[in-house]
Write a structure and sequence with these properties.
The protein contains eight helices and two strands; from the N terminus they run ααααββαααα. With 182 residues, it is mainly alpha-helical. It is elongated and about 70 Å long.
């Protein structure tokens, strides 16, 4: 690759890298350096319409080189429906009580959460924690086996639950070890 071509590819890479950072596609620059090629630019247009498009609208767009990527539908909702709270996921280790008015401890999930805490405090890797959970028969809420990523996703919940489970001094020590795992 000549110096001029390399400089051009590097400049393209800088532009694409900035765009890629926003979308999480960091491998784009590696591809350009290895392939030495250019990536196609995609132009996007969002049109707001207030009435149904004419019969030949789609055909004209297609003939002009446009490809349909998405359709967004909107509708007005009643004020009461618009103000309702969106559903929230129940924190791991808790469940809805029989009276449906509050949350209560979910014994199995709480046991799994405490086991995760204990193993991480013992400096076990997330893979080891997942293997131990699976070995003891614990499963995620979706009924799947634990993996390092699913254990990692529980770390904020462990940090939240820890102070309620352990004494002040004991939690201070355990929290430092837990944060090291992150």
């Amino acid at each position: 690759m000549s110096e001029q071509t390399h400089a051009s590819a590097s400049k393209k890479c800088q532009w694409i890298e900035a765009e890629a950072l926003a979308t999480g596609l960091l491998a784009v620059c590696d591809y350009l350096h290895v392939a030495g090629g250019a990536m196609a630019r995609i132009e996007r247009v969002r049109e707001e319409i207030s009435a149904q498009p004419e019969a030949d609208y789609w055909k004209r767009k297609s003939e002009a080189g446009w490809k349909l990527a998405a359709v967004e539908w909107t509708k007005e909702v009643e004020e009461e429906a618009a103000l309702s709270d969106p559903a929230q996921e129940i924190p791991y280790g808790l469940r809805i009580a029989e009276d449906c008015a509050h949350l209560e401890v979910h014994p199995t999930e709480r046991e799994a959460l405490l086991l995760m805490l204990e193993l991480i405090v013992q400096d076990r890797t997330l893979s080891q924690v997942a293997a131990e959970l699976n070995g003891r028969g614990f499963r995620t809420r979706r009924g799947q086996e634990w993996g390092p990523a699913s254990v990692f996703n529980m770390l904020p919940r462990m940090i939240e639950v820890g102070p309620n489970v352990f004494s002040q001094a004991e939690w201070a020590t355990r929290r430092r070890r837990l944060i090291r795992a992150v």
